[in-house]
Design a protein that fits this description.
With about 250 residues, the chain is an alpha/beta fold. It has helices spanning about 5-15, 30-45, 60-70, 100-120, 135-145, 185-195, 215-230, 235-240; strands spanning about 20-25, 50, 75-80, 125-130, 150, 170, 175, 180, 200-205, 230-235. Strands 1, 2, 3, 4, 5, 6, 9 and 10 form an 8-stranded parallel sheet that branches. Strands 7-8 form a two-stranded antiparallel sheet. Bound molecules: zinc ion.
């Protein structure tokens, strides 16, 4: 039996359509697992947005991500911070937090964009995902100046005055509570709650480096459930934002 039947019931009760996108973080790490996950999406002709850490890109990572982009699929890439380093002296981890001033943040974002643009050219989407889904108004001021159009954090993040348009992820596929990963039934209950909202766009955050074969099979079952719904359509992040819609 499909463990996601309860999600199918929630979707059947929804009156309004949902655009779904998948954002996989930490491109540049765990190339083999990234390739496995992305190939699952390519084989099913589904869009996947990879958030790439510029400073983590090895030659091998460039080859892997480059071949995914050229695999006639619907893979997109955008910037995930610079080095995925925690610069916060205390409190929750941030690469672009209050312990980095505007100039430091601008420098890192610019260096990261240059690196990604040199590798991926026009295939680099104008989206920025901050590591740990956290950043400040200095980050968004720098992003605007550097031509980035969308910020992606997690739903419920602190609001940033004068921010960019946001493309938040609502679902953390590897959600933990008190440091422990949700089991399948807890995960389904959590996702059901999020799909009961009226949100027209629901982003789903993945982390390929923590997804083994079994977890990818579970994701496949979840996606099949979504595909069976008349309510759900699949989009890249830029499509979900209303850009590039056909
Ligand atoms: Zn990350």
């Amino acid at each position: 039996m499909n463990p996601f039947q309860s999600i199918a019931r929630v979707l059947a009760e929804r009156q309004t359509p949902i655009k779904v996108f998948f954002r996989d973080d930490d491109g540049g790490w765990a190339d083999e697992r990234l390739q496995q996950l992305a190939m699952d999406f390519i084989r099913r002709d589904l869009p996947l947005d990879i958030a790439v850490i510029p400073d983590a890109l090895s030659n091998q990572s460039v080859d892997v991500i480059g071949s995914l982009l050229n695999a006639d699929g619907r893979i997109a890439v955008h910037q995930h911070g610079f080095a995925h380093t925690n610069h916060q002296l205390s409190g929750r981890s941030c690469e672009f937090g209050s312990d980095r001033n505007y100039h430091q943040q601008y420098h890192d974002i610019q260096a990261g964009r240059s690196r990604l643009a040199a590798v991926f050219g026009s295939q680099l989407a104008p989206v920025f995902t901050p590591p740990w889904n956290r950043c400040t108004s200095d980050t968004t001021a720098a992003l605007k100046l550097l031509g980035v159009q969308y910020l992606s954090r997690i739903t419920g993040s602190d609001s940033i005055g004068d921010s960019l348009p946001e493309l938040p992820v609502a679902v953390d596929w590897l959600k933990k509570r008190k440091g422990v990963r949700l089991n399948t039934s807890e995960l389904i209950e959590y996702i059901c709650g999020l799909f009961k909202t009226d949100d027209a766009v629901i982003g789903i955050m993945l982390h390929h480096e923590h997804m083994d074969h079994g977890n990818r099979l579970l994701l496949h079952q979840f996606i099949e459930t979504l595909k069976e719904s008349q309510t759900v359509s699949f989009h890249s992040m830029m499509d979900a934002a209303g850009r590039n819609d056909s």
